[in-house]
């Protein structure tokens, strides 16, 4: 899998939401590497992408409370499993479950299998609260999809949680999730 620096030379055939990610990153002068690939729907399917970028793509889970009045995007290392009780104790919400694909599309403009922090571009009203496992914040690099699961990008973690989140007017809640093997 070939690694490219920055946006594709031609954006023909690329979805508008992917283009908007590249436009924003470029306007913020955030450097990124990119690989294009077949659609990947799971963390397990990302193994070849991970190897190409030299990093593990994080897991992105779109969650909501029971009443479906609060929505969360949880980013965590791929090897960690979600324990909703553990997470609920750290945020102002209980009874978390997976939100619907329809809500994901409505709030983040991404489809299941494409959930990404980059989707916050499409949430100007801050209806989605970002939750970040502290382990990711300590890593030098962060990898995710640019709102489509046919490309993946690698950026500096400090750029994502600094310049990018500031530009899309979102903050995050740091959470500590235990290793899925413990």
UniProtKB/TrEMBL annotation:
- What GO molecular function terms would the record report? aminoacyl-tRNA deacylase activity
Domain (YbaK/aminoacyl-tRNA synthetase-associated) spans: 37-160
In terms of superkingdom, the source organism counts as Bacteria
Enumerate the PANTHER family for this protein.
PROLYL-TRNA SYNTHETASE ASSOCIATED DOMAIN-CONTAINING PROTEIN 1-RELATED, YBAK DOMAIN-CONTAINING PROTEIN
Tell me the protein family, please.
Belongs to the PRORSD1 family.
Write down what this protein is called: Prolyl-tRNA synthetase associated domain-containing protein
